[in-house]
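Records of this kind hold a single protein each, on a pair of labelled lines. Below, a sample record shows both lines together.
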Amino acid sequence: MIHDGTPEELIERLKSLLNVEELDRDLYRGARVTEGRGRVFGGQVIAQALAAASRSVDDGRPPHSLHAYFMRPGDDALPIIYRVERDFDGRSFATRRVIALQRGVPILNMAASFQTPETGLTHQSAMPVVPPPEELKPEQEIVRRHADTVPEELLKWMNSPRPIEIRPVVSRWERADHILPPVQNIWVRAVAPLGDDPSVHRAVLAYLSDFMLLATSTLPHGVHWALANVQSASLDHALWIHEDFRADEWLLYSMDSPWAGHARGFNRGCLFSRDGRLVASVTQEGLIRIRG
């Protein structure tokens, strides 16, 4: 279990989880963690796939984007095998494809691009004006305070120490109807230092980029993935890494959902450093199916 122990122990287990073991050239195995939920968290698969792809690229050429499609739910009782295809190595860019497999069938396909650092034209969107994390309550504390309105599965999952701290600006659990506009801002960071290896911080960013993003498209409808009549799952996920950052320092994850329909919800996210730099952008479409 990753949700047990001191902050330092939680982070060491997270770092081990998001790393991959080399089995052969361009063939890797990802560790597993059993959380009692049955399926693998999508952010874990993305982070492990990125780690596998990065192993085949020179250290001086960091990843700047990835695009992933989820095809089947991962089984958290099994390890995941990652097969890397070296599609292109140019003077400035390199591209890789990764297939994540369980029981011999793909559960995720991912393409990633890597670039030798360069200078160029610069601009960015402004960071939203929100309260600092010190003025906000941790998500776990908010959920416990409203335990009578939280689904039992979610409450059980949230009642244990976690390697990533989340402090929402506004929480759906503070509204009696759980209905909010399709916009949310959360502060996120690792609960203990991650060290100075940039690849570790990128892996943790890829992992947490899947936090609460799909939920943005459910906010106007008062539904939640833990409700018995809701079937939800990520369908695809794209991440662009713009600037250097530390995932063990506060990042503002600003999300919105401009559209939902046809049992799908589309979501966008921007991750800002504490000093206002836009360090990463995310998009995701997910399944939101209401069962009768």
Summary: The chain has a mean pLDDT of 93. The two ends are 34 Å apart (CA to CA).
